[in-house]
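Lecture notes, part 5. Sequence design as translation. It can be helpful to think of inverse folding as translation between two languages: the language of shapes and the language of residues. The source text, in structure tokens, appears below.
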């Protein structure tokens, strides 16, 4: 029989037969769906059948003569002349009883989930190619293509099945595409030698890891009041007997949530037979500290720590066949990631992003600083997904914070929701003891006069140290770091440290290590750390004085957790301030409303800042952004997947990944790196930098950073160098 191809020969790798690819994808896709279905309380059987049907026929159009001519050319990147997706959809439309869901899966496996409302209006051409010419070409050959497929794969034939989704359709469709896209992308990457050979991941082994964690925490010791409270917190979380699928843990900073909540999750994992654990930290957070703690406390003898506890700083999703293997996956038993990477995956309509979603059912998810992890306008839709995943896909959620706002109870005429009880895992008496220790820890101060950069420098350097200065944007933090460094002069290069996402994860870790070392030296006080909100949660820093550019009340409370963390300093203060307009400083429009509420409703009225104000502050913000989340909720309900993907943005501006490291640039160009290297060394930047600085593309979705970079300012060295040369000079 004539050989038909699915992929052409390329880069020294042979062509792949149609038979081999379809068999591989079907096996893997059905496996993906079957594992997810074990945890499905609804629609599990429908998921498996839909994915099986779509996988059997997803590349049928590649059998077209014109497509085969292209596929038989070696080392070609020429697009196939006939849309190969359309034939699979046409096949599934040929008779009654064929699942429209499978048609949707085939249609979406390259271009992503489309707007269901618009597709329904196309009626008979729903999920078909947009052009009549292509549809006609496919219609003429569909019988021949079907016969060829049946000759090659007589046992790989989809069977019609009626059935309707019983649960939430939005999550079902994303899960469906995830199972198919991951199988398809993985097989292609594996064929071209760009898939990691060792993909075996260790199991969760919850009982063994809990024993290991108990031993680790038991060895921390200490008889201080705070350590005794931490021990009580750990034991209470560990032993909490709770049956709800969404719970809360309201505990102040410094009480050991990192290990206490993990003990709770491991206990729940044993009871629930869970697959894996996710730790979701605020989107600008430095996740390395939690990763290091978990690797010390949870890794069993002989295991590879990187495979047990995976750290994912960025979404890092790639559609192109050449770099699909660099896409970050959710396969480790314990995954520490950011709110950006996690929640934007739930919102996505793209195959490269969604391909990891099928790993989520049956998982336990710890969302730290839950009310602050997302902009307020995104919380209602995120809450919707949390409930669907809890009720239909056996996920268990712990929503934690040092000053948790029960955002699910906030009121709005535009947010229609059923009342849901979210129990606390800590008993009220312990929460009161923990909160009582927190109340006298810090003074909140307000500067009513707008400050120039020079004013701010003088205020910071005159305060008791060590000092923490937090700015609202990466660019503003870099400018103030340069100003402060200029103030101290070249003879005092160690007086200023800088920490933001302008640095790679690898370089941020080095800064964190320096900060911890210096904070441990009680004699080393005359220095300042300039940072962004990335230090506001999950970082064990304790400064003498803090300065926080006006943002939300919740952000201020988070920042205050990095000042006098141990509660031993009676003079600790944190100042809130507003900057004058300045051509080098950059405003953050995302905090404008919240900053106005903090200043006008609390500081100017002389109301003392306490965690008790958190709910009131967020309610005020909800009242101002109700229209935004109503539009998103409606888009999700109507199946407007591209709209949800585009508008559910934790960071308002689109971002891309750039690489400044010369060694990694070479590896990417030669296909020799893996996704872990991307996570460690790449930097996320606003997409408009690509055009502004004419950044060279290294691979689909990855760009070369061709401006300056150093371990002090990161990519801001190049950005500010360009701006200063064109418009400004620094003060010192």
């Amino acid at each position: 029989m004539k050989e038909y191809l699915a992929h052409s020969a390329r880069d020294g790798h042979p062509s792949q037969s149609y038979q081999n690819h379809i068999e591989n994808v079907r096996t893997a896709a059905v496996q993906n769906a079957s594992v997810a279905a074990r945890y499905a309380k609804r629609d599990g059987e429908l998921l498996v059948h839909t994915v099986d049907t779509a996988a059997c026929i997803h590349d049928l159009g590649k059998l077209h003569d014109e497509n085969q001519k292209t596929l038989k050319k070696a080392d070609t990147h020429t697009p196939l002349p006939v849309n190969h997706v359309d034939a699979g959809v046409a096949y599934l439309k040929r008779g009654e009883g064929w699942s429209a869901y499978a048609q949707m899966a085939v249609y979406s496996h390259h271009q992503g989930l489309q707007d269901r409302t618009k597709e329904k209006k196309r009626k008979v051409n729903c999920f078909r190619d947009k052009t009549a010419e292509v549809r006609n070409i496919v219609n003429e050959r569909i019988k021949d293509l079907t016969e060829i497929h049946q000759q090659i794969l007589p046992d790989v034939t989809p069977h019609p099945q009626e059935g309707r989704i019983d649960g939430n359709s939005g999550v079902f469709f994303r899960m469906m595409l995830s199972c198919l896209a991951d199988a398809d992308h993985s097989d292609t990457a594996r064929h071209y030698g760009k898939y990691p050979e060792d993909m075996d991941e260790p199991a969760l082994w919850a009982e063994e890891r809990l024993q290991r964690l108990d031993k680790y925490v038991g060895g921390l010791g200490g008889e201080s009041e705070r350590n005794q409270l931490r021990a009580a917190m750990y034991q209470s979380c560990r032993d909490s007997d709770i049956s709800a699928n969404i719970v809360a843990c309201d505990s102040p900073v410094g009480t050991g949530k990192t290990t206490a909540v993990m003990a709770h999750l491991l206990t729940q994992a044993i009871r629930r037979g869970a697959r894996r654990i996710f730790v979701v930290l605020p989107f600008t957070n430095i996740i390395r500290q939690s990763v290091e703690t978990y690797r010390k406390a949870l890794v069993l003898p002989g295991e590879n720590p990187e495979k047990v506890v995976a750290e994912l700083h960025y979404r890092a999703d790639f559609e192109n066949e050449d770099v699909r293997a660099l896409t970050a996956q959710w396969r480790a038993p314990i995954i520490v990631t950011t709110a950006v990477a996690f929640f934007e995956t739930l919102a996505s309509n793209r195959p490269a992003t969604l391909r990891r979603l099928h790993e989520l059912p049956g998982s336990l998810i710890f969302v730290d600083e839950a009310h602050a992890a997302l902009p307020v306008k995104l919380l209602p839709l995120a809450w919707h997904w949390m409930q669907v995943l809890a009720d239909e896909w056996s996920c268990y959620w712990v929503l934690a914070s040092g000053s948790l706002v029960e955002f699910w109870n906030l009121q709005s005429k535009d947010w229609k929701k059923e009342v849901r009880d979210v129990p606390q895992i800590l008993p009220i008496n312990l929460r009161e003891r923990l909160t009582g220790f927190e109340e006298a820890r810090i003074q909140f101060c307000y500067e009513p006069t707008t400050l120039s950069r020079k004013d701010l420098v003088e205020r910071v350097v005159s305060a008791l140290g060590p000092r923490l200065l937090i700015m609202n944007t990466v660019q503003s933090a870099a400018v103030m770091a340069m100003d402060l460094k200029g103030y101290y002069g070249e003879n005092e290069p160690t007086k200023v440290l800088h920490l933001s996402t302008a640095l790679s994860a690898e370089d941020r870790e080095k800064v964190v290590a320096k900060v911890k070392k210096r904070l441990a030296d009680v004699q080393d006080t005359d220095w300042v750390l300039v940072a962004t909100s990335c230090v506001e949660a999950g970082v064990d820093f304790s400064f003498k004085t803090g300065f926080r550019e006006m943002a939300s009340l919740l952000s201020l409370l988070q920042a205050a957790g990095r000042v006098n963390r141990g509660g031993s300093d009676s003079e600790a203060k944190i100042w809130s301030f507003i900057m004058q307009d300045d051509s080098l400083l950059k405003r953050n429009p995302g905090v404008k409303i919240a900053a106005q509420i903090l200043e006008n409703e609390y500081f100017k009225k002389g109301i003392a800042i306490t965690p008790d104000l958190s709910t009131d502050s967020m309610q005020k913000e909800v009242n101002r952004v109700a229209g935004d989340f109503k539009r998103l909720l409606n888009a999700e309900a109507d199946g407007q997947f591209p709209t949800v993907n585009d508008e559910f943005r934790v960071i308002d501006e689109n971002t891309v990944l750039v690489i400044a490291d010369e060694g990694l640039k070479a590896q990417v160009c030669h296909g020799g790196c893996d996704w872990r290297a991307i996570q460690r060394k790449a930097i996320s930047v606003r997409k408009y930098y690509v055009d502004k600085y004419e950044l060279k593309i290294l691979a689909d979705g990855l760009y070369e950073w061709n401006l300056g970079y150093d371990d002090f300012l990161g990519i801001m060295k190049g950005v500010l160098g360009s701006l200063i040369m064109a418009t400004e000079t620094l003060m010192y």
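The translated text above is only one of many valid answers, since several sequences can fold into similar shapes. Residues 112 and 351 are 6 Å apart (CA to CA).
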